[in-house]
């Protein structure tokens, strides 16, 4: 059954839940999901609502307009409407490591994700065979310091051509330029191989080893122009001991990275992530 | 600011959220918490709602009556209303082990729990000094097979006299009789020293050691007449290795037991647990 | 550099470590790993030892014989010697689910495991394409109640022909017969989709949902003739809530299953698992 | 039965384990624990050894001397010998928060720790009653910026007088001076309320909230002259969500802090921590 989802936030005030749920109900929509949250420091109200469209009186393509007119302007809301029958289109960026790529593609192939993956982009040829074995087009852009602007322009043209909604950096070892980041605000998902904000930047496992931590982590976040500082979507950790060499940390970390990244991607696909001021609200 | 909390469940149908939130809003209550859940197998709707009473038009002592008349009968709801200024009164039952007792009393003394603990009951004198150091009356009922009915009758009289709302078994090593359990339905909280339903009954650490599990656990649940089979409130686990003797499991398990029990007690105190057919809905 | 590994156990008595380490050292081996453990209930001594063979005076193919003569008979030891340049050969058994298979093959392809996988066996054709994309021969044995003995005989002939050392059941949905189990004692690794010994048998996620547990798990163990009761190699868990339907448990469980199974397989490949009386000693 | 424990490290070379275990065995000691570790980057060998002294030929008070003469000089070892019948003496420093203090004292009272706690020191009177209820002398040193040198001198005199071996800072809100730190090298244990090295310094929960992390942590470490940068003994973490306010993080963090600190203290008491270049080797 086709459903609509709405994610919204606005300055908090009494009566919003009542108004919005009333809007759904009087128009004969059946609410199947509601979660709300009030940030009591910033006095902001957040909500995710999902309802069945079968008998809904307002046509799907008019919902956003009506909602805007009737509620969003009144409450100064920021909102987005999604539909369950529209699959988000994702592009994967990868370099030489295969673990995150395999993890995502095996979920995709098994039908675990309601999304399309029309293409994989890389700065190296190494993962081409993997892409091929899953039947996904693989494009190589051998980015160097000198050709970066030009290469990214080509990548962005390709993304546009394929109607890509969001990008997943599956251990992609190139820094994305500001221009590209700003074209996909809160729509580029990265996996950083540390428990952020510890060990920002390169070689976090080396740094974790040097510091002698007893637990390592991985962090999936939206990419912003500040390195490893974007809104965190998901994190997880694993216990280690002094016996683990840097190589062992790298190996154990791979399992964290792939699971954490795939969890974050799923949340994004399901429209359960709302970003506000560099933090995420994750609806469950 | 005084708040009301309502926990309810009823057969699912469209419009309930809208109706109930509307009831709060039109009567000038400000909703500060709403969480709902639909059990799609049983087709049951569950909700927890919290609102500020400052300008609420219906007097606090009339809320339950009005809600019953206007909504509960209509939707065939089961519901309870709580108020933030009414502290639940809890009794602790303890035997000879101190770890759960200390954990709870140190939280209580630090003001972590919105509850009163007017008394501690035991079948042994051992914990009397601990109770005394926290200034809480300690009653000893040396239960034996022969005097159990009589002793429990006395305990229940004492509980009634002290207006006890719920009981926490802090590693209390006596089986509670059916009669007493039925007097406190879903209001007796136990901590079992295993990851239920594994290792039901006596000596779970011994059993875990024999089976060679790699993880041990603890489970807090409401007591029902079937041993260790009541609705689970909270569980947690800890990794172990073959090097851990039974004594080590007992030692590591104590940390699990005290943390898991105290988390469950907190959830109960905050009226965030709803029981339906031997399972719990835990609102967050 | 080529290394030898020895795993041994024997009745505990003073001086064993000294004797055995002395044997390595006087023969010019350099010990690079030593871990030992004494089961104080059973009074059994366990040890894993690894040393570099470069200047070792005893030829590799004579080590077992010498060790047997000099120490094993004297101390009543059970022991096995392994060499770092001999890759164990593993067969994967799979049915229709792909998550464990992909996880293992992606590690294998990435060179994460020091093992060979010469073949995959299934009772269904579904995973044939996956096997093919990794270049591994795939054999289908459509086992039914009636042809089981015959089919297993053919499987075992195939395993023998391929010099298979151990078998991994990657969510293989057929019960292995006693005859086959006894041919591979402690060399068939299964993944059970629950936190054993809770929820033995079929449909553990359904059972977990019914019981209302707050944590689900997965267990990798060696297969014995008693169902889901063999020596546990590895377990892990994941927190769930009342909001998780059975389907959600199945989905979350898949991540547990694949990680837990792959960790167990790795331990087995590295000769870090020693079985004694239905329990494992896992060296780290 | 009285046991000796030795912790040692030295430049790695072949034969050390054999030599040292031989020393114990030929002198009729029974080894009951041996764990070793080689840091392959620094080429350093670490070992912890424990043996029964019943028939040991060398008198307990001569062991260190003999070991030094026979092995330590030869291998350029750093080592320490401990005896199971000598209880380490610990001092607790506390300010106004009770959760770590209660956790430690309840373990101490229950006989969980083989240690003596002859005194508690504070810069505030608040915890005096808690100390009293456990029968432990409580000394108040109201440190200010102006009197710090003088006050610490008095504290150190008191510690010396009481033969204190190590100090535990149980959420003690004063920075210890360099002078005092250097008097107790790797013998002052602190609990920091974050997952170090993230959120060093004051108000880590506030910082964690601002960053929007999905997991919080606590870290127990030895105090060095660089703030929150000493060798890490133990860490643990807890999952949080966007719904957790700073106050909730503080509350959830308390459970982490007390458990992590008490685990670290236990490891120290059991002589299972060896510090090398700002990192710990934790024997299990």
Q: Biggest interface pair, residues each?
A: A-D, 30 and 30 residues
Order of helices and strands of chain A: EHEEHEEHEHEHEHEHEEHEE
Number of domains of chain A: 2
Mean pLDDT of chain A: 96
The protein's oligomeric status is: homotetramer
What is the level-2 CATH architecture name of the largest domain in chain A?
A: 3-Layer(aba) Sandwich
What class would the helix/strand composition of chain A place it in?
alpha/beta
Estimate the helix proportion of chain A, in percent: 25-40%
Percent of residues in β-strands of chain A: 25-35%
CATH class of the largest domain in chain A: Alpha Beta
Using DSSP, what is the number of strands of chain A?
13
């Amino acid at each position: 059954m086709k459903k609509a989802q709405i994610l919204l936030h606005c300055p908090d005030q009494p009566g919003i839940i009542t108004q919005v749920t009333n809007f759904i109900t009087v128009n004969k929509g059946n609410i199947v999901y509601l979660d709300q949250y009030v940030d009591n420091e910033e006095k902001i109200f957040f909500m995710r609502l999902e309802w069945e469209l079968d008998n809904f009186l307002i046509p799907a393509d008019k919902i956003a307009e009506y909602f805007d007119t009737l509620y969003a302007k009144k409450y100064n809301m920021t909102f987005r409407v999604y539909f369950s029958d529209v699959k988000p289109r994702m592009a994967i960026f990868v370099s030489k490591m295969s673990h995150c790529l395999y993890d995502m593609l095996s979920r995709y192939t098994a039908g675990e994700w309601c999304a399309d993956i029309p293409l994989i982009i890389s700065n190296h040829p190494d993962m081409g065979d993997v892409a091929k074995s899953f039947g996904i087009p693989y494009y190589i852009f051998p980015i160097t310091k000198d050709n970066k602007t030009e290469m990214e322009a080509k990548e962005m043209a390709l993304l546009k051509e394929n109607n890509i909604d969001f990008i997943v950096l599956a251990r992609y070892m190139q820094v994305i330029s500001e221009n590209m980041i700003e074209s996909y605000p809160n729509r580029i998902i990265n996996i950083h191989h540390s428990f952020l904000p510890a060990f920002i930047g390169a070689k976090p496992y080396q740094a974790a080893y040097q510091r002698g931590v007893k637990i390592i982590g991985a962090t999936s976040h939206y990419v912003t122009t500040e390195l490893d500082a974007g809104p965190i979507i998901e994190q997880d950790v694993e216990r280690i001991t002094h016996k683990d060499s840097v190589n062992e940390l790298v190996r154990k970390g791979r399992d964290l990275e792939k699971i954490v990244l795939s969890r974050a991607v799923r949340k994004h696909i399901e429209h359960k992530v709302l970003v506000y001021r560099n933090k995420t609200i994750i609806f469950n």
